[in-house]
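Hey, sorry to bother you again with one of my protein questions. A protein chain has come my way and I'm curious about its shape. I'm sending you its amino acid sequence along with the backbone structure tokens. I owe you a coffee for this, so here goes:
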Amino acid sequence: MCLAVPGRVLGIEERDGTRMATVDFGGVVKEVCLEYLPDLEVGEYAIVHVGFALQRLDEESARQTLALFENLGLLQEEFGDPWENARAEAGLTGGPAPAAHPAEGEAGR
């Protein structure tokens, strides 16, 4: 499922001529394009779909929607655990996540 999720703008910058924002979706932070809402400001809320801010939203509505999505498990479904997602995409299932670097002396065993 692909939801339109409300998020709060934490920061804004221009990248290669495109206005981009760092947006917090109830604890998950993602980069979002602001081309459809060029006047959106830091601290405001917007509905975001597939990486684009589509509509400004008041804080109370955003908080209620995020709480509802969280209670229904939709935020986990939409964003998931990035480490779990990476393991699944790599075809790894179950068990602990692999170590980032092998311990000294273990390489090549």
Q: What stands out?
A: The chain has a mean pLDDT of 79. Residues 84 and 97 are 8 Å apart (CA to CA). The chain is about 25% helix and 35% strand. The first helix runs from residue 59 to 72.
